[in-house]
Automatic annotation (TrEMBL), chains A, B:
Complex formation: Homodimer.
Any one GO molecular function term: histidine-tRNA ligase activity
Protein known as: Histidine--tRNA ligase
Domain Aminoacyl-transfer RNA synthetases class-II family profile: 103-355
Organism: Stackebrandtia nassauensis (strain DSM 44728 / CIP 108903 / NRRL B-16338 / NBRC 102104 / LLR-40K-21)
Keyword line: Aminoacyl-tRNA synthetase, ATP-binding, Cytoplasm, Ligase, Nucleotide-binding, Protein biosynthesis
GO BP: any one term: histidyl-tRNA aminoacylation
Superkingdom of this protein's organism: Bacteria
Coiled coil: none
Catalytic activity: tRNA(His) + L-histidine + ATP = L-histidyl-tRNA(His) + AMP + diphosphate + H(+)
Binding site for L-histidine: D84, L85, T86, R114, Q128, D132, R278, Y282, Y283
Family: Belongs to the class-II aminoacyl-tRNA synthetase family.
Length: 445, 445
């Protein structure tokens, strides 16, 4: 194993960063389960034809080839690594429709892969946490209200900068562009979706040159994209643009309900934002993008929406609504900038010092007693001088060192941070709860 | 999404099976952390030259190609999916040696991939749980005793059939073959490793034809492979074969210590077994294979050993000892045969019944109160007749249904298994601890 180097786009954490990732994933899972979402794990690969259904992403897929099949036909397996958790989930629902209970609420926390050039906040291998609710044939709109509130609860329970979920509705955008007389409303949605990259002037150019929009139509589209409010006042602002369409009315109603409920249940979490479009074709109702305070450069850290036609086998359709949280996109910058760390690098709470080599078995028994009460314990690797053994604990952040007594005096435990040392009853001693395990530490703020 | 079919070799669980997998993974992680092992997650891919270092496995690797690079040179990235967690871990240790504290104890629970033909207990994508202890330059032998005891503790805490770890020592085998005058002791180890596949006669043929062993040498090799004891008596049995060699003595001593300690600390867990060889070249000391009662056909469900030369950058070497638990190999058969299931399919403990559509917001507030005390709760999807809402809970195994009161009487909660119903104080009510979350259920025994 000669050459070893980090691979661009494939982030890996040192143990302290991994503690952060572990605790965040556990907290997300806990919150999702409190809302009744069941855990699902899918295989990492999907047939290429499934992966390529959403045209836009085809360039990003890693295709699998079996090494041993090199001679025959390139060895392609016809499979690729999934680039999100939505496509695999839609396939899972169809494959197991007869065995699942609908509406089906699931969460899924797994790595995804994209073969694209890595850039700030974009990786080739990254962890996502998704929640979705799918139903058979019809999906009530109240789930479009619930999903961002669940995600808000989950994200706000994490030690990360504040987040705000920007919400729009496809019916609103599409109805508006229709009512405006644009011939390709979906094309307009895709053009407006580029506003952060190319600016209003760039969008105007796309609308007029590629979609043949007239000047006043372009102006109305840009005016719509500027509307963003924390309450239902966006409805009047949109109406003031003078466009009418039944689909627009439906979209305004639905979005108003989402925003009103959010304002009541989770003040400051949701914002109606007509600029949010989501590039993907399959969204049909509410859409979400999420921005983290001070990390606008990362783009949306958590996106999703309602889809009606993603999972369908011809006979049945399974409309759904869901959001993906970009775990790596959120955590990799926070950890690498030193904003988040761990209280220690190891799970170990107590190091049992080793007085001499022959005492190892006795020390193992002391450790076993502590472990039986849930206290992570290891025995020192060698019978060095106690000073060296204490250093061993210090370097890892292990808070307690136990010095075994050979007599009947009882063992002594030292808190090596304060230096306090006392004789303890090994059958009942417990550390303070906060020292029991490595926890996330907010630093450098 | 038209064609959907399960893929052979890529097992996926339905929600109940996933509960089993989740609980097992959590229990393993908990046990490993009690012994001070830190969690590490590595990226899923490694450079091909790293993956191919262990010649034997080259045929099994999935190579990654970028779809968009099709035109140029086939698009191969030079990377493949890891086929175990040992190779990535060795690379991780070398890459981060300056930032890690040694001895370094880590556990790692991730999927691995092998492009091989799927068969009973062998998959193309499968989860493994590894623990390893690596040190810099030298590794004390007491870790070769500790590792199988940690794994034994972890496996015995799971609701799976009893396991037995069979232990041998490479020094013992190699010393024996050397002392016997065989010119290629490593070749003999590989031949004996095939004994379960080709039988003693097949091994005899390999030894004589490929390694030029004389009849009495073949006989001695087969006699050694037959020795298996639960205590240290294997030492005398090996000595009785009349072979002597300093390396053999060392191996006998080391194995005797492992077995003696195991007999004391974990009776019935370890067995000295001279037939255990492990095919891989890199083992240098104690080696382990594990068999699950009644599932011999799966082969070893948990294997490993000591290695001295796996991670080395020329200047420093990082000897280690570790074991991999085959999570999928153990769980997929137990779940698919119906031996392990879950107490329910969903995390939800309480379903809040919905009296009418307008009450949804009130019901959401009741649910939020229960969630704030850690009770997983969802609100019924629609204001159907209560009988239908109870059915909804029954089909998912949700134990409690809450019927909201509009007045000041307090809400009623029904345990739908017993039919018992009572008025409760929503600000203090808690379900029995055993109902709090979905748990593993042993069934069909």
């Amino acid at each position: 194993m000669s050459r070893v180097a980090p691979l661009s786009g494939f982030p890996e954490f040192l143990p302290a960063g991994r503690v952060v990732e572990q605790r965040v994933i556990a907290k997300l899972a806990e919150t999702f389960e409190l809302y009744g979402f069941a855990s699902v794990n899918t295989r990492s690969i999907e047939p290429m034809d499934q992966l390529l259904r959403k045209g836009e992403t085809s360039k990003e897929v890693y295709v699998l080839r079996r090494l041993q099949a090199e001679a025959e036909s390139g060895g392609d397996t016809g499979f690729g690594l999934h680039f999100d958790l939505t496509v695999p989930f839609a396939r899972y629902v169809l494959e197991n429709a007869g065995k699942l209970q609908f509406p089906f609420r699931r969460y899924q926390i797994q790595p995804c892969w994209r073969g694209e050039r890595p850039q700030d906040g974009r990786f080739r291998e990254f962890w996502q946490a998704d929640i979705d609710i799918v139903d058979r044939d019809e999906l009530p709109t109240h789930y479009e209200v619930e999903i961002p509130l669940v995600v808000g609860d989950a994200l706000r329970s994490l030690p990360i900068p504040d987040v705000r979920i920007h919400v729009n509705n496809r019916k609103l955008s599409q109805g508006f562009y229709q009512g405006l007389g644009l011939s390709d409303p979906m094309g307009a949605i895709r053009a407006v979706d580029k506003i952060d990259k190319v600016g209003p002037a760039g969008v105007a150019k796309l609308l007029s040159e590629e979609l043949g929009a007239a000047d006043d139509q372009v102006k109305a589209c840009l005016a719509l994209a500027e509307i963003a409010t924390d309450d239902e006042s966006f409805v009047d602002a949109v109406r003031a643009l003078g466009v009418s369409d039944p689909l627009l009315d439906e979209g305004l109603d639905e979005l108003a309900t989402v925003i009103a409920t959010g304002a009541e249940d989770a003040p400051g979490l949701l914002r109606a934002d007509m600029r949010i479009a989501r590039g993907l074709d399959y969204y049909t109702g509410t859409v979400y993008e999420t921005f983290m305070d001070g990390y606008g450069r990362l783009g949306s850290v958590c996106s999703g929406g309602r889809y009606d036609n993603l999972a369908s086998d011809g006979k049945n359709s399974f409309p759904g609504v869901g959001i993906s949280i970009g775990i790596s996109r959120i955590l990799v910058p926070l950890v690498s900038e030193g904003k988040l760390g761990a209280t220690r690098d190891v799970p170990t709470c107590v190091l049992v010092a080793l007085p001499d080599t022959d005492s190892r078995r006795d020390c193992d028994r002391i450790a076993a007693k502590l472990r039986s009460r849930g206290v992570a314990t290891e025995v020192a690797p060698a019978a060095q001088k106690y000073g060296k053994q204490i250093k061993f604990a210090e370097r890892r952040g292990i808070p307690f060192v136990l010095f075994p007594s050979s007599g009947t005096d009882g063992h002594e435990i030292r808190d090596i941070r304060s230096g306090e040392q006392s004789t303890v009853d090994i059958d009942s001693w417990l550390p303070p709860t906060t020292d029991l395990r490595a926890e996330i530490q907010r630093t450098g703020e």
